[in-house]
Write a structure and sequence with these properties.
Rossmann fold; alpha/beta; 11 helices; 3-stranded parallel β-sheet; 7 strands; 4-stranded parallel β-sheet
């Protein structure tokens, strides 16, 4: 088995030891995997439970909306994207006070899993390489093992795990439908209701490295901007470096919307 990622190697060790594990699947998964087959394949791999990270995204939304209600005059930069968080820390420290002090969907899901499935190892599976740093550096106490979709694909291949007929009868152990739009640029703003709550100049939706840099540079010059929904990858998490797909961004976006509509 040709596995290069140390996190993927750690997961293989856990599988071989038959550890009790919960898979936390990021909402961009339909770009690469079919539902419900992916849940069945993960359970074949050795996961006892499989949950949608979109469930944690619901908590992220609730926390953000609570802040905007409690402090209506404050301004917020959303924090689900660890690349943006690190960019602000390293290059725009003057914006640190504007980062919303809330859980990302990954950490919110981990906290839900910790309560519901005590003693189980939490494994986040998503499109982002820097989620590994968010897990290890920012939230070590949550003990999240983070791997990418690409890592998972390689493990499936190495373990010779393919979809089977019975996978069609399985499903998530923890679900959330509305926030399945999260991996698309603007998904947070739409699913949380920010778009309805604020007027055009009061919120902005941004994705792509060049636009991210431009928007962060100008943030302090736009006091009317109350909520900035920002993701570093062009088009959102559907275009993360841990995704392996030949589909166009439009096709990837449509896959997310199709799943959201199911």
């Amino acid at each position: 088995m040709s596995i290069n990622s140390p996190e993927a190697k750690e997961l293989i060790e856990l599988i071989n030891k038959k550890e009790k594990m919960v898979a936390m699947l990021a909402p961009s998964f339909p770009v690469m995997f079919k539902y419900p087959e992916i849940v069945g394949m993960l359970k074949t791999l050795g996961f006892k439970y499989v949950v949608e990270v979109s469930r944690g995204a619901e908590e992220t939304n609730k926390q953000l909306l609570a802040l905007t209600k409690l402090y209506p005059h404050k301004r917020y930069i959303t924090n689900p994207c660890p690349t943006v968080v690190r960019l602000i820390r390293n290059k725009y420290p003057e914006l640190l006070d504007y980062l919303a002090p809330i859980d990302s969907p990954m950490t919110a899901t981990a906290k839900l899993v910790e309560k519901k499935y005590k003693g189980y190892k939490k494994v986040f599976i998503g499109p982002c390489l820097l989620k590994k740093l968010e897990a290890n550096e920012d939230h070590p106490k949550l003990e999240i093992l983070s791997i990418t979709f690409k890592d998972l694909q390689e493990i499936f291949k190495g373990k010779n795990i393919l979809p089977k007929f019975t996978d069609k009868f399985t499903g998530f152990n923890m679900i959330a439908k509305k926030t399945r739009l999260y991996p698309i640029s603007g998904g947070l703003a739409q699913s949380s209701g920010v778009i309805k709550k604020y007027l055009d100049p009061e919120y902005d939706v941004v994705s792509g490295p060049q636009l991210v840099e431009k928007t962060l540079k100008e943030f302090l010059l736009k006091p009317e901007l109350k909520v900035l929904d920002i993701l570093n990858c062009e088009g959102g998490c559907i275009n993360g470096p841990g995704v392996v797909s030949e589909d166009s961004l439009d096709r990837r976006r449509q896959k997310i919307i199709n799943y959201w509509n199911t």
